[in-house]
């Protein structure tokens, strides 16, 4: 996911692991996506759109 955000948006991102395989995507410290109960993130397209939307605010 980090590589896709870098590639599509040209942003510098940091990948940080969480406990029990949890992951979240933060923009300016605010969560825009996270893993669900099964450990899956939303699709890359959805995450990129959420990051774009958050940056546009």
Commentary on this structure:
- This protein is α+β, with helices and mostly antiparallel strands.
- It contains two helices and two strands.
- It has one domain.
- A two-stranded antiparallel ribbon has the order 1-2.
- Helix 1 packs across helix 2.
- The longest helix has 13 residues.
- It is globular.
Sum this structure up briefly.
With 57 residues, the protein is α+β, with helices and mostly antiparallel strands. Helices cover 37% and strands 16% of the residues.
Write the layout of secondary structure elements.
Blueprint: H1 2-9, E1 24-27, E2 30-34, H2 44-56
Antiparallel strand pairs: 1-2
The parts where pLDDT drops under 50 for at least 5 residues are: none
Judged by helices, strands and strand pairing, the structural class is alpha+beta
Number of beta strands: 2
Compute the gyration radius: what is it? 11 Å
Task: Report the sheet with the most strands, covering strand number, pairing sense and barrel closure.
Answer: 2 strands, antiparallel
What characteristics describe this protein?
57 residues, two-stranded antiparallel sheet, 37% helix, 16% strand
